[in-house]
Amino acid sequence: MAGFLYRLGALGARARYRILIGWAVIIGAVVMLAILFPGTFESSSSVPGSPAQTAYTKMERHFAGPESQSARVVLRSPDGARLTDPALGRTLERVLADTGKVPGVTAVSDPADAGMISPDGRTAVADVTFGVAAGTDVAPATLAAVKAAGAPLRAAGARVVYAGDAFQEGGPPVHPGEVIGLLVALAVLIITFGSLMAAGLPLLTALIGVAGTTAAMIGLSAVFGITDNAPTLALMLGLAVGIDYALFIVSRHRGNLAAGMPVAESVARATATAGSAVVFAGATVVIALAGLSVAGVPTLSSMGFASAAAVAAAVLMSLGLLPALMAIAGRRLAPKPGSRAARRLTETARPSLGVRWIGGVARRPVRTLVAGTLLLLAMAAPVTQLTLALTDEGSDPKTAASRQAYDMVAEAFGPGANGPLVVLVEGSGKAQVERTAATVRDRLRDMPGIASVTPVDVAGSGSAARIGIVPAHGPTSGETRKLVTDLRAALAPVSSATGQYVAVTGLTAVSIDVSAKLSGAIVPFAVVVVGLSLLLLMVAFRSIAIPVKATAGFLLSVGASLGATVAVFQWGWLSGLLGVPALGPVGSFMPIIVMAVLFGLAMDYEVFLVSAVQEDYGRHRDAHRALITGARHSARVVTAAALIMIAVFVGFVMSHDPDIMPIAFALAVGILVDAFLVRMTLVPAALALLGDRAWWLPRRLARFLPKVDLEGSGAIAADDRADDRADDRERSAEPVPVHG
What confidence tens digit (pLDDT) does each residue in 69-82 have? Predict the structure, then answer.
């Protein structure tokens, strides 16, 4: 691998302008294809084959209707009045009639006929259907006219809120918080390198990588189903790892230049050494993210593959484009002689804070291990209270119309009105279906947790019937999840006795099944991740102790990040400061995504930190010296990389997206804990305590494990020795002058 990367880096330095033009053509072509043939991202979350999804598909077939774009209008009377009052009632009728006359509107439901006027008469809900297909944007003029039709009610003091798919508010492509995160990352790079040009290269390659990945996803969404959250997650991870991977290579390149190495040779060696670690780290992250597909949830698979593609693009940019850019920059990337940056790279500066910290940890390893482990366990304690559910409009910011409509409906009709359930009965004859449906309705009458039950609705074919259920609690509550379980248990005997198909469905039941599927996948995925961690690190470092302590540190980091997420998003700690839209269950996708990403990033830091220690230990066989020397070579870069990732993730926390916000927060906390408390504190303490035993490997196992040179230093050293021997042979072959 190192030899191939060396040749790749040398090619980048030699043909730098042609490579730059080639990448410009490739990225430009991808962007152009995305503009010419754009697709659309999907917003559904389902598990094919789950009980609720199977029943929902059957119900759509029996009760098929025009799949048109729709909206929901929630109306509330002013204080002291009711929508059923004669004067206000006439105004409501006129508003609904005027709404139905708007060009592009095909139907407007009557709240009275649909039973959507609240018991106190103050709130009503009307559904508006448009003449465009579901998922298609409605003309802005049509939406404006629908809103204008509600002016008489607003003039009478009523509140009118427009929500639903047609009025869904799209956020800006880039939030201010994300820009702030990038600016903080740039500041960290400038402080690390002491050079604006050196700081700009990692940011530039990362931005090019995510731009290409985003354009590719837009184009591929026309062919493949890509969830609407996948681009945001891919953007977040692509930026974070893209900056970090380029940072490692540029840092190694500047060290070579500071030592007086020619530019072309420095580019090739930096690509071979730091690039080898980047390939290993990137492959680990890609494998972990692609492994999300084992959960069997298409939405999660889409997010995993999209993020894996973004990480792969970051690796390609770091190895394919960055060498050409470094060669074009030439010696301008070299630190000025005598500068602080030059002294750090040539090891003539005083030890950095990171080196002094690790030295202090090495002097008190037992105390450090005990205190650090107890702190992480305390942070992880809240994870026992973690509850999961798919997000809905109740998780949106309070300023969003969707959230306002959600809260108004819950207040007027009860929390369960936002998440109704449906019981589907399917049979061969109308009479039999009606009898079974009547039996089902009788069973539902006295079940706890149900607020109301609708009359039986028989399909036109007579082969199916459905019964609506309004739960007594909200769609994401534990009580509603229990109700779905109880309903299935209570209705199973009815299905067996009648021979009819009886199932609980509805979007709420589908979401509950998805959440259960994701929750059930966490432990198997964790077992796979832990096993993969042990295997990869055992191969990488040829040690038993290092993989075990690294995996234990990863589990502590995951526990601490999830515990902090529970404290903020469920308990409300610091929720006001962070702008958390709503407290309650955390998104079901969060734990498994955080576990996959943190696994990859934790392995990154383990590789970059411990490989430097391993290299020095292999030369001098002095465990303490290797620990301090390794810290001198890697602590500053690992610190900068962690701070950059934290800045990027915090930027996405500030976007207040209910799906992305807890993931970004958990990753920011996880990186903070893993980089500084685990890799920079507990890992050095464990290495200091173990000494030479940290590198022990049974001889039988050593014969089977392949030898991996993580940073390619062995291959480079071998090439140097071969070149030296060739030079010696050339000198010995030269004729010796004879002076007579």
Answer: 889 999 999 988 89
39-57 average pLDDT score: 79
What is the C-alpha to C-alpha distance for residues 260 and 269, in angstroms, rounded to an integer? 13
Residues in the chain: 740
Pairing of the two strands 123-133 and 105-108: antiparallel
Burial class for 524, CB neighbours closer than 10 Å (0-12, 13-18, 19+):
exposed
Residues of the chain with CATH 3.30.70.1320: 65-167
Strands 68-76 and 159-163: antiparallel
DSSP state of 45: -
626 DSSP β-pair partners: none
Distance CA 165, CA 152 (A): 24
Phi then psi dihedrals of residue 471, to 5 deg: -65, 160
Residue intervals of the chain classified under CATH 3.30.70.1130 are 421-505
Structure tokens at 436: 């079974």
CA distance 355 to 487: 61
- CA–CA gap between residue 35 and residue 222 (Å, rounded): 12
Pick one of 3.40.605.10, 3.20.20.70, 3.30.70.1130, 3.40.190.10 as the CATH number of 421-505.
Answer: 3.30.70.1130
State the pLDDT at residue 725.
Answer: 47
What is the residue-wise DSSP string for 4-18? HHHHHHHHHHHTHHH
- Contact assessment for residue 125 and residue 72, using Cβ atoms and an 8 Å cutoff: yes
CATH architecture of residue range(s) 65-167? 2-Layer Sandwich (3.30)
Report the C-alpha gap between 714 and 523 in whole angstroms.
39
- Quote the DSSP letter at residue 418: G
Q: What is the pTM of this model?
A: 0.84
Could you report the per-residue pLDDT of 625-634, keeping only the tens digit for each? 888 887 777 7
How would you class 155 by CB atoms within 10 Å of its CB: exposed for 0-12, middle for 13-18, buried for 19 or more?
A: exposed
Residue 183: what are its φ and ψ, rounded to 5°?
-65, -40
